[in-house]
Amino acid sequence: MARYYRPRPWAVAVLLVVSVALMAAGITSEPTVIWAFAATWPVTLYSVFRLLCRWTEP
Predict the structure, then answer these.
(1) pTM value surpassing 0.85
(2) What's 29's DSSP letter?
(3) What is the DSSP letter of 56?
(4) Quick one: which of 24, 18, 25, 1 has its CA closest to 50?
(5) CA 52 to chain CA centroid, nearest Å
(6) pLDDT tens-digit map of 7-21
(7) Of the candidates 43, 41, 47, 39, the residue with the CA atom closest to the CA atom of residue 6
(8) Rg from Cα positions in the chain
(9) Torsion-angle region of 6 (φ positive above 0: left; ψ -120 to 50: alpha; else: beta)
């Protein structure tokens, strides 16, 4: 199922913004913000890599 995932560029941009905001807020914040970042960061990385792979296909 994951190999059929084709992220949209705007969705990846939103995920990146949310992840960076959570990372910045998590520096001096409570553990729930850190856990929210830990949950969104792998999804963001996977989406970015899938988008880059799609763009570089021949």
Answers:
(1) no
(2) S
(3) T
(4) 1
(5) 13
(6) 788 888 999 999 999
(7) 47
(8) 13
(9) beta
